[in-house]
Amino acid sequence: MKQQSYENHTRYNPLQHFIWMPLAAITLISAIVYTFSAVKNGEFSLSTFLLLALAILSALAGILARMYGLALQDRLIRTEEQFRYYILTNKRLDSRLTIPQLIALRFASDEEYPALVEKAAQEQMAPNEIKKAINNWRADEYRV
């Protein structure tokens, strides 16, 4: 497996990104077009409404599942990074750091982590800036 770095750290879930999302978008757009056509032609019925409702619900279900999964991963990463900082420095993590900053900081090696945490908090670095400032990349193979 290729070593993870800033250039290649993003990951895709093929079923989510290349099958479900395109199919959900196509289904939703088709249901909307069909509904407008049915209304225009005076053929709107319960089955037309149900088709549109199911298309909306299936798209929302997938979006919400993705959002909830990412929110849970964010909370876990925050907890891991708080614990990691405490183990390395015997101090609590700076409360000015945001969750997106902590998510970016997880890639820093233990050697550069404490200094980068301080810099990120003081300068309010953007997550992308933090990732670019990392010299010794620590891979995260579990985040999707």
Q: Describe the main β-sheet briefly.
A: none
DSSP strand count:
0
Straight-line distance between termini: 16 Å
Alpha-carbon Rg, integer: 22 Å
Beta content comes to under 5%
Which series of helices and strands comes N to C?
Answer: HHHHH
Structural class: mainly alpha
Helix content: 55-70%
Structural write-up:
The chain is mostly helical and 144 residues long. The chain has a domain at 12-73. Helices cover 67% and strands 0% of the residues. Helix 1 packs antiparallel against helix 2 (46-89). The longest helix is centred in the middle third of the chain and has 44 residues, at 46-89. The chain starts with 13 loop residues before the first helix and ends in an 11-residue tail after the last helix. 12% of the residues are buried.
Features:
single chain, 144 residues, mainly alpha, elongated
Summarize the structure.
The protein has helices at residues 14-40, 46-89, 99-105, 113-123, 127-133. It has 144 residues and is mainly alpha-helical.
Secondary structure topology:
Layout: H1 14-40, H2 46-89, H3 99-105, H4 113-123, H5 127-133
